[in-house]
Amino acid sequence: MTTKSDFDVLLIAGDIDKLVHEPARLMLLSILYTIDSADFVFLQKQMGLTRGNFSTHMSKLEEAHYINVKKEFVDRKPMTVLSITDEGRAALEKYRGQMKKILAALG
Amino acid sequence: MTTKSDFDVLLIAGDIDKLVHEPARLMLLSILYTIDSADFVFLQKQMGLTRGNFSTHMSKLEEAHYINVKKEFVDRKPMTVLSITDEGRAALEKYRGQMKKILAALG
DNA sequence: TATACATGTTTGTAATGAAAACATGTTTGT
DNA sequence: ACAAACATGTTTTCATTACAAACATGTATA
Predict the structure, then answer these.
(1) Which of A37, A92, B1, B24 has its CA 20 to 30 A from that of B53?
(2) Domains of chain A
């Protein structure tokens, strides 16, 4: 018989995607998951992050292909538009599944 | 009227307790939440961490008073027993509540 | 009595998150 | 027209952190 402790499900915490797990990025990815796309300044202000901090988190998600970053000009000013990718959706859904299991195991 | 976006609940991700949120510690705290107490070697092996890594995570949770660490001798060998504190339980429950809201907002 | 074993801790290091400083261009004020 | 303020992001710098290797201590064994 396989030894299956009552907490074995909790071990999946070790497989969590840290790129998604980090709070600021979880927030950003979740927002984009619900509203599909939004611009840099709007998101940065809503989330209460500095521009620098937001920028680095954005870049990491972009490098992972979890979001798309499109740069355009509006009223002669630069505007950066973020949108979630299919890969990003999949990653967040996987994360959600893992976290749900963990939370469920806590009763 | 207060501007309440449909993703406002996701902003609570910024208030998450990072001490609990870190995967290895979330795992450890969750295990102790379900089985109350266990020893160092058992936990370290189950969790698949090196002793050094486990030791530092343990210490951080101890410093935060989320767990108790008791050292004794068994068969003339040192044994370290970890147990969750009320404060630790409260922290994990708060964390669970926050994460549940976030996950729920994702549909 | 040395060699291996067992249990943790401390130290060294690479990665990370956060904000300040910087770069680039635009609008405003005089 | 020209400087100062504003707007949008990026790059750099810094402190913290997660991780594992090395270390310390004691025990069992050959």
Answers:
(1) A92
(2) 16-100 (1.10.10.10)
